[in-house]
Write the structure tokens for this entry.
Amino acid sequence: MAERKTPDDTAGTRGLADDLAATPSTAAAPPAAAPPTAAPPAPAVGEASDRLALFAERPISPEALKALAHPLRIAMYNLLGEIGPSTASRLGRLLGESSGQTSYHLRQLERFGFVEDDPAHTGGRERWWKPVGFSIDGHAMLEDPATAPAARMMLQAVVADRADVLTRWMSSPHEPEWDDAQINDRITTDFTPAEAHDVIAAVQRVLEQHIDAAKARKEAGETEGRRRYRIYLDGLPLPADDPARPAP
């Protein structure tokens, strides 16, 4: 079990952690990226060259996990991923907290590398913050007594945030222009560990390809109709003792 936070446009990631306004420039905009080409054929199952690291973002230390495992810090990190770069004052208003509180916790998040200054907003009276992507190995940290409480809190927060976002999406007003650009789906099948790995790696390659192309078009000035978009990716073996599973 692993959790990856990949906010768009964050350093060292596709952008997560998600997740923004471009810095004004007098330089000519780069040409729009060509549409992504088809992904190459998948290698044979279990082929050594395809044993990709599924979570390429920055892994965090136990100390960093403990620092993040605070309700307000998790809420601020998630909100930055959803709305994009923000200030302590704005986060405070949205979360019902004082700017002093949010400012303090943002500095703690910065200390452990979870947020950083947004280069698109400089020179103002307040600092603008953006989230930095990371990944955690849930199983390893849940098995370590020193990190288990923080890991459990973090993973529970991930599930709760996902449920909240999906609930709000399902109850949001109908937007016809997005009818063919959203999905909520589930597929259940039988996989070996190698087959499951290869499917996840292939999906991640396609996502990276399209996200990079979209970012290039955004940087080239193609902003009309563009908005924050969330993609969730879950793939997991069902419990071996699932009573609903027929005997082999």
Summary: The first helix runs from residue 62 to 68. Strands lie at 2-5, 115-117, 129-131, 134-137.
